[in-house]
C-alpha cells in the first residue's frame, strides 16, 4: 500500500532508539523526510547513520538530526531553527521513573507534566496552523497503554499522559479536523525497549524477584505471548500518518498484543 506521504517532512522526537526510532524508520521507508531529535548526541548520530544507510537510502528521503532536549524551551527552539514547518509530528519523550507515589514531590510531578503533557501540547501549538494552511497534517503522540489500564508504579506517567489524552480529545475535534489535520495517540503496551527493561527492573526490586522472572511473567500475561517490536510499532505510526487515515482523529490506538482486557 502506498501511504501517500512521500516527500512530506516529519519531526520525530525521542528517535535515537526504541519506539521513536522505529517510527522514523517506518516513515523514511515511505519516502518521508525526517528530522529526528533526542538528547544523546552519540546515539542520535548513530540512529541518523542507520536511517541514511537503510530505509532513507531505499526511498531517497532526507535525514536531519538535532541533539536537544525537546522538553525544554531551548530544545524546541533549536529544532525549529533548523526547520519551522512539518507535515507530520511524532511526539515522544522518555517516561518518568517508576516508584511509589509517596516519594514524589512537586518537582517530580512538574518534570513529568513538562515531558509527557506540556511538551506535546507545545509541539502541537507550534505546528498545527501551518498544517491547516497547507491542508494536510498528522500528529501522533506516543503515550502509553497505562492511559487505559494504569500501572501502580507508573503514577507519574499515568497522570501526565492522561492529561494529554484529555487535551487531545478536545483539540482534535476542533476546526482542524475539517482542515485535513488529524491528532491521534498511539498507546504502546509492552515493547522490547530500554523503557520496558527499566520498568521491569523497578518491579523486580519491589517484588524481590529476579528481573528475568518478572519479564517472563509479564510476557505470559500478553495473549500474543511476546513483547512487541519497534518496527511493528513504527508501521502503525506510519499508517496513522498516511493519507488513508484522514478519517481517524482523536483516537487512542492501543498496540499491546491483546493485553488490555476491556471491551472499550
What ranges have pLDDT less than 50 throughout 5 or more consecutive residues? none
Largest sheet: 7 strands, parallel
Main sheet: strand order: 3-2-1-4-5-6-7
Computed structural class: alpha/beta
Rg value: 18 Å
Could you explain how this protein is built, in words?
The chain has 264 residues and is of the alpha/beta class. It contains nine helices and seven strands, in the order βαβααβαβαβαβαααβ. The protein has helices spanning 18-29, 41-53, 55-59, 73-82, 106-134, 155-171, 194-207, 211-220, 230-240; strands at 9-13, 33-38, 63-67, 88-91, 137-142, 181-188, 252-255. Strands 3-2-1-4-5-6-7 form a seven-stranded parallel beta sheet, sandwiched between helices. The longest helix is centred in the middle third of the chain and has 29 residues, at 106-134.
